[in-house]
Each structure stands twice: as structure tokens, then as C-alpha cells.
Amino acid sequence: MLLAPLAACASTTSAPPAPVAAAAANPPAGMQYLYGSGEGAALSVQAWHGLLGYVASKMKARPADSVVLSQGASLDAPTFVPCGDKPLAAVFDVDETVMLNIGYEYHDATSGKGYNAADWDAWEKTGEGAVEPVPGADHVLAALRKMGVTVIFNTNRSAANADATARAIRAAGLGEAVHGQTLYLSGDDAMGSRKDGRRATIAASYCVIAMGGDQLGDFSDLFNAGQSVPTRRAATMTLPIAGMWGNGWFVMPNPVYGSGLKGGFDDIFPMDKRWAPPAKGE
Amino acid sequence: MLLAPLAACASTTSAPPAPVAAAAANPPAGMQYLYGSGEGAALSVQAWHGLLGYVASKMKARPADSVVLSQGASLDAPTFVPCGDKPLAAVFDVDETVMLNIGYEYHDATSGKGYNAADWDAWEKTGEGAVEPVPGADHVLAALRKMGVTVIFNTNRSAANADATARAIRAAGLGEAVHGQTLYLSGDDAMGSRKDGRRATIAASYCVIAMGGDQLGDFSDLFNAGQSVPTRRAATMTLPIAGMWGNGWFVMPNPVYGSGLKGGFDDIFPMDKRWAPPAKGE
């Protein structure tokens, strides 16, 4: 239902504006998957369903701890900020976690310019008309608020564009965001794009019952400590951290940009898992 | 832990075989994401955790219906095969659902040849040494069997290569698969790559409590009825089907190949969600 207008577009008879000459015939595979496919939509809806079910289940007995790592915790020995009697909150990244940046990615794919800070800043300031919710996010954020859970956004968009970002969040159907209360941004502290400080600030006032993000840095800066690509992947698959996925920490798909799109052949394909077709006659 | 050997590889001092000249410096973004990233691994582990939790919860009260659509069902008005007193099973696609085809994708990325049927057939026959489980799949399939749920694979690998595919499944740590009992393949019936017939055969003997796949065709052929890309995406987000994701139907990420990687600019970017940076001075 959400995408009924989209379906209508496909059968429109008016000619669309052609992509600029340099662009490929089709959007990159990652964009096809994330912004256009049923598979990608189903994956997002599934993650949001999982989050809602988890929070509903956890609320039956008040959790002792937030899902925010405490200061000094490590990935090998994670400890969490205690909840005390603080009110419940859920903390989410914004871009490609709750909101799809359709307009910006259209520009990216058709201009062939790749990411640049000036265009992204212009997008933060003026993009509110060209966003959509991540499939499922709008419904689940509304449900969380109805259950009495405060929804807090923790994004690396700039504090200088706080008002425009709040407007974009609202335009995507994701509700209200108030800077310093339910919206935390890059520039709010001295840690730049690292989010641990902002998470600590939030967890000082709230019992954070769940977090959602498309990048590992949305859960802990410890994932971005300069590890090799394979070591970083292994860290997500090693207990006890591996037990967090779907149990307090919820990942949304993003094969379009970010810290997941790194690595050379030696990082991605282990030496003992390489293959070539047998020579003819073998 | 699973990827500790991978981490060791990254610091090896012996020179790796160089990719062939035509190949890019790095694997494509989708492969970096699916085979190398922590984000992709976390997303898979999360989906497998969701599946295990769902099955454990459903088993407390025996379900009335399988999650396999009944003949004549539509996506708008889905009906399901009744369970009766049939034993419980869970049905899974193989490639990029339970098993990562690391070796084949290395060949694909370095040869620059793209998919071709002859190389894929050779891979089915000889690839068993170069596969890995999808993160979480090995643990969860073992847990399901322990709970008394029969694990059944329904894949479009060829029936002619049944033995080699069973060996690859075993080599990936995914347990035993017996053709005609717990392994269904393309060629088992006259429907080619369409899986509804095989699903009906399985659901005639089992109460299918959950299904997992990386392609929508792993859940129903109705998603591959020639719809436009936006219509197909909308179908996954429309109730009651939207309610299945994470509740009986479990999607695994695959931004590398398949029916999710389709569509031109008009399919992926709705006309009313396009954006360009404002001209200077605006």
C-alpha cells in the first residue's frame, strides 16, 4: 500500500527526465536492491517486525540493563549501562535505518559524482520532499511511541541542519524529533561522527531497550577501531556480541554505502575458499 | 570464531594469487557487503535468530496451517496448506540462504565473465571445498533438528548434481541432505526453477512451520508472475503478506545476484522523489 504511487508511476505515459549522459543505463545493483526490490523491502520489514516483537516481549519484565555498552566495555567482555528506574527509549540512526534517501541517491546515481560533502549538506538542508520511510519503520516507530517507548534519533547529520533534518524525519512519516531531546547529531559533542558519547548521554537519562542502525558504528564505536575487514566481521559473529543481533541490536540492510563496503580480494575471499572451473578434460 | 581462519589470512605474508588482469581492484560492493562485512554478517545472524525464536514459540502450540501457500491462493488473499497431524519441517533454499558460494563468487569477480551456466554447473559438481555457511545458519539448522523439526532444502541446483550438492551442504556444516527426502532440486518435477510444486509436495507430508530464502521465489512463485519492479516490491509491503516477514517467512540478504537486482531509473526512483542540489545563489 505504501508503494502504490510507485506502482502507478511505472505505467505512466509521460516521458521521465532522462538521466544525464554519463550515467549507466540502470542504477547500481545495491540501489536496485535497497530502493527497488521486494527482497530488500521484505528484509527491512522483517527486521522491524523483529524489533517490535523484541521490545513488546522485553517490556513485560523491566530490563535490568540498557543495550548501550558501558564505558570501558570491550567486544570480548561487553557490559551495559544499568537501567535503574529510567524511562524506556529506543535509539535509531536515521539514514537508511528509518529513512531512505531516495532523492540524494537518484542524484548520486545520475550525476556519477559519487559522495561529496557539499551535495550531502545541500541534501540535508533541502531534501525533505524526496525521502521515504524504510519499509516498516514508520509503522513500528508509531507502535513504539504508543507503547510508551521514547523514540530517539542519533544520526551523523550535522547539528547545523537540525531543523531541516527534523522536517525530513516528519516528512518521511517518522514522527517528531526535537534537537537535544529526541534528536542527537554530529556536532553535539566533540567526538565527531563517533556515537558512543551521544549514546552515553542518552543512556544516562533513559533505559535504552533497543537500538537500530545500518552501520556497526550505530551500535558501538568499538567496531571502528581500525580492525581488518575480516577481523571486524568475525567480531560480529563471536559470542557474546553475536547474541545481540535481533536481541536488542537490530541491523537494517544497506549495500549502497558505508563501512560495510570495504575490502580487497584478500579481505573478502579467504585463500582456502577460492575456486576456478576444472580445466577441460579433467 | 567461525571466521578466525579468515582473520588469520589477512595477515599472511605469502603472496596471494593475483586476480586476472581484467578484474577490478576490489570485489563489487555487493560481494564486499555479503561475504566480507560485519554489517552483512550481523544481518544474517539476526535473521537466523529471528527464525529460531519464531519456531520455538510456534512449537508451544501446534500451528493449524503450514506457511506454504495453498494451490489457488493469491498474494491479496493468501490461504495456507493445513497441518493436520503431519510432522514439523522447515524448508530452506540453499545458495545464499544457508550456504555462501565463496569460491564461485571469487571466480565470478576475478574472471569478469559474469554468470554462465557451464561454470555454475562445474561449481555444483566440484565446489564443496569452497563454501561456508551463511552466518548463523549452521547453528540454527542444528538447533532446529534438535527440537525435532525436519530440515528440508528446496534449491534450484540441478537434480543431476544431487550427490555433489549434498556433499557441499555437509561441507558447509549444514548437516545431511537426502535427495527426495530432505533435498528437492530443479528437475524433480516439470516446473523448472519454479518451486511451488516442490513446496506442495513437501507440504503434503509435513507441517511446514517456517521457510527461509534469499529470493521471493523461495516463498511463492506468485512474486515472479511478470509484475513490474515497483508492483513486486509493493506486494511484499502490503498486508496480509507484509505480516509474513519474520513471522514464518524469513528473508536472507543477497545484494549479489537474483531477482532483487532489476529495474531501471524509473522503477527504482519514483518521479516525485527525485532531487538535485539547488543551483548556486538559490
Question: What do these coordinates show?
Answer:
The structure is a homodimer of 282-residue chains. Chain A is of the alpha/beta class and 282 residues long. The first copy, chain A, has a domain of 161 residues: HAD superfamily/HAD-like (Rossmann fold), CATH 3.40.50.1000. Chain A is 35% helix and 14% strand. The first copy, chain A, is built from ten helices and nine strands. In chain A, the strands form three sheets. Chain A has a five-stranded parallel β-sheet, with helices on both faces. A two-stranded antiparallel ribbon of chain A has the order 1-2. In chain A, helix 9 links the parallel strand 8 and strand 9. In chain A, helix 2 crosses helix 3 and helix 3 packs parallel to helix 6. The radius of gyration of chain A is 20 Å and the shape is globular. Chain A starts with a helix and ends in a 14-residue tail after the last helix. The N terminus of chain A is likely disordered. The interface between A and B is large, with 110 and 110 residues. Chains A, B: This is Acid phosphatase. Chains A, B: Keywords: Signal. Chains A, B: It holds the Pfam family Acid_phosphat_B.
